[in-house]
Amino acid sequence: EMKDNTVIVVFGASGDLAKKKILPALFGLFRQGYLPTDVQIVGYARTKMEKAEFHSRAVSYIKNPDKDAAISAYDDGSAFKALNDHLLSIEAKYTSKERNRMFYFALPPNVFVPVAKNIKEHCYAETGVNRIIVEKPLGRDLGSARELINSLMQYWSEEETYRIDHYLGKEMVKNILVLRFANVAMGTMWDKNSISNVQITFKEPFGTEGRGGYFDSFGIIRDVLQNHLLQVLSVLTMERPVSFSAEDIRDEKYPPITQEDTLLGQYVGADGKPGYLEDDTVPQGSVCPTFAATTLWIHNPRWEGVPFILKAGKALNEGKVEVRIQFKDVTQGIFKDITRNELIIRIQPSEAIYMKMNTKTPGLQTSAMATEMDLTYNRRFADAKIPEAYEALILDALQGDHSNFVRNDELDVAWKIFTPILHWIDGSRPKPLSYAYGSRGPAELNAFVERYGYHRSPSA
Ligand code: BG6
């Protein structure tokens, strides 16, 4: 449940993540009445910033921290003592002794450990609940991730730690468990007997523009596949949890998974749009992939033999994230020109679930045609407000619900799957295939998905 007497400290308050996602999410929750009315939000940043500037970047109710706290470094204990004094002065007006503090790390990963240590040592509220929220990148491979997780856990317990993967906060990703476990019809066709192949696709219509420095040292596999798409895969394929509790859900999330056959791409300039290598923030001659497709196999009785194709790319022809489940062919014989059933879960934009179905062509002739059963949200739920992922997750964290956060063992499994291919890429530096900015990705992609059994429907 939600605690009164809560202070939220956003570290990295002047940065991009805070500005684009965290502060707007906090404001959205506040405006919709989800935060306690006396909640206090403190921005903490290394960049010196005047109050007016911070306010114009953020929103007027967010309090600026003391100036001296704002300018000091993240590894300076005295700055955290000053922050604690500031928090105590805010909390002085509470009528009860309870003081709850939530610390959001909107920070580069190299300061995670010093900040975790400093807030534990100097800003830990003795009477109340303390929580930290951290977010990727959490390591570069299995070894470094374990090291980081262990260092953080020296100071903060699993119970106090909320590891964000914001895809787990998206409405349609949260809907997958309901779709699967609240519908007997879905449940019975959700396995290798009915399903031929599954694609999980992430497409963005823009390149790394200005973010090339961060991106180039990670690449699309670490940026999107290893976390966001793998999380979608896990809720899509997990066994039914014993209950909807956080631990029961997370216990089921990862069966043994292996990875094979990766196609890498990098965009080149087209139609006046700059190629990846023309981005000033990208090192010359970089072979960093901005596109990747890879196939995962899940080794359990439900999924053995079903390929899961994960694809993600920047600078493509559209922005879209979807799951596409392609079912097997019906036994041929009585109908011609029918297509495979496909269930599409469109995560964004325009949330939708639809099923490609064959139906009798209306009229006197007897033939079959492809159509859809369509649940498009903005038609079916015209007035519903779909929450932002960060709103949903911050609210969960404030309520102490870990269901949609990444447990340390999940992170381990996720890195285990991708570490071999990442080490191979880092070591051999294969040259990625080129694709034009604004295209559908490398030309070789069609053959890739067909190799894993995907049939393009004749109508599409
Ligand atoms: C982030 C990645 O985690 O997710 C970005 O670092 C990506 O590269 C973003 O653009 C996509 O998030 P969303 O919510 O816009 O799909």
TrEMBL record:
Transmembrane segments: none annotated. Residues 177-454 form the Glucose-6-phosphate dehydrogenase C-terminal domain. It is an enzyme of class 1 (oxidoreductase). GO terms for cellular component: cytosol. One of its GO terms (molecular function) is NADP binding. One of its GO terms (biological process) is pentose-phosphate shunt, oxidative branch. Its EC number is 1.1.1.49. Pathway: Carbohydrate degradation; pentose phosphate pathway; D-ribulose 5-phosphate from D-glucose 6-phosphate (oxidative stage): step 1/3. It catalyses: D-glucose 6-phosphate + NADP(+) = 6-phospho-D-glucono-1,5-lactone + NADPH + H(+). Keywords: Carbohydrate metabolism, Glucose metabolism, NADP, Oxidoreductase. It comes from the Eukaryota. Residues 9-175 form the Glucose-6-phosphate dehydrogenase NAD-binding domain. Pfam families: G6PD_C (PF02781), G6PD_N (PF00479). Catalyzes the rate-limiting step of the oxidative pentose-phosphate pathway, which represents a route for the dissimilation of carbohydrates besides glycolysis. Belongs to the glucose-6-phosphate dehydrogenase family. NCBIfam families: zwf (TIGR00871). This is Glucose-6-phosphate 1-dehydrogenase. It comes from Mycena sanguinolenta.
